[in-house]
Amino acid sequence: MFGFLKPAPEKPMLPEAQIDPTYRRLRWQVFFGIFFGYAAYYFVRSNFDLAQKGLIEAGMYTKTELGIIGIAPGLSYGLSKFFMAAISDRSNPKMFLPFGLALSGLCMTLMGLIPWATSGILIMFVILFINGWFQGMGWPPCGRTMVHWWSKKERGTIVSIWNTAHNLGGMMPAVLVGIASSIYAANHPEVAKVTFGHVWQEALYYPGIAAMVAAVIIFFVMKDTPQSCGLPPIEKYKNDYPEDYDEKTYEHNLSTKDIFITYVLKNRLLWYIAIANVFVYLIRYGILKWSPVYLGEVKHFDIKGTASAYAIYEFAAIPGTLLCGWVSDKVFKGKRGLTGFVFMVLVTIAVVVFWLNPATPQEELAQYANLPWYKNPYQLTDFIMMTTIGFLIYGPVMLIGLHALELAPKKAAGTSAGFTGLFGYLGGTVAASAVIGWAADTYGWDGGFYIMVGGSVLACVLMLITMIEEGKHKAKIAREDRYGN
Hints:
Layout lengths: L15 H26 L5 H11 L5 H7 L1 H18 L4 H21 L7 H15 L3 H11 L2 H12 L1 H23 L8 H4 L2 H20 L12 H5 L8 H5 L4 H10 L2 H30 L5 H13 L1 H15 L4 H21 L8 H4 L8 H30 L6 H31 L1 H39 L2
Helix pairs in contact: 1-5, 1-7, 1-9, 1-11, 2-11, 2-15, 3-6, 3-21, 4-6, 4-7, 4-21, 5-6, 5-7, 5-11, 7-21, 8-17, 8-20, 9-11, 9-16, 15-16, 15-20, 15-21, 15-22, 16-20, 17-18, 17-20, 18-20, 18-22, 20-21, 21-22
């Protein structure tokens, strides 16, 4: 392990009277660090999607070419989230989290400011691949932090709240593009209508600069484990021990072999949710990545309408994710698979409605040309469907991550979650980028939606299988507890 990434050493235990107030204060501080730190990762995760429309308008690339380029971040992120998680599980999140964020922000800043960085398919692929690798340094230290600072009974709620960070962060590129378009319009009064073709570079480097600034702040906020602050393990502090708790396994670093082989590759239920994650991510990123292009080309949205729809997709996920966590804990009593199945059925319906809702007829375009999207009933329906899909899809995303954290000891939690991410990004986002882009170019947008709807149906089936296997898994634990085996 590189010296500056090594875990912070344990400190002598604080006096008993200081433990509770210190724990309370530091948990708020650490949560601020992982919440806003991970939100900042999303400043530079999907901002390239907003630049795509401008690259097409400028005649620089086709949808198929952008689909090929778009493979890079999903491919590298999936690999990085898995392999960097093994490093993160043995690193100090105070260093690991902001380090990756600063490097990712630097990639996007260079891409927006230096012309050669967007001069060809290969160079763009390489830069986005590198950026995706740095992006993989975000989730693992956050997962590691949550399992060290919050006990199992608290974790469902805290993960649900934290999971909304990427939606908050995901809205920021659209907000920054809106600011960039306003600045451009003020400086170029001769331009009657600002489009993505005018501000695609700002869509890259505005979020990049913001991410680098955030990295500095997060460094000063983050902490490593409670023990590194003179506090007891969270299980002892909350008197909340997992059924299979073993101090040697849970409180001491594991070997790479134990993490990968014993707690990940031999975990059958983890394999089920990882495969389900492929199709959940296909929908999540299929809509997110291509909606700016689809809404502009097919549904006649202007830049403000497109940016608004893109932002609301992320914003709607915040209450949707919180509701999903509450339903999972309170209504379905911790049955993550059942909750995910219900939400994915609703997602499938919403995607179909979004697809089949007609575009504004040609003979009515002039009537709505100077009106905002919310006064156009066709575009209003699309906006509502984007809101609905965003509200629903991030619940299953959160549940799969939470489930993965719960299926391994906390010293292997990041790798466990990284394993599901490996499938989601290598399978789901690659298909969302390349396959949907190719299908839209070759067969029109109907071809792209056939793939998304089919993937959504498969996600429902796999969530159903997960639900069944989850029931078997819990029944097995109950039998072992009952008979002491």
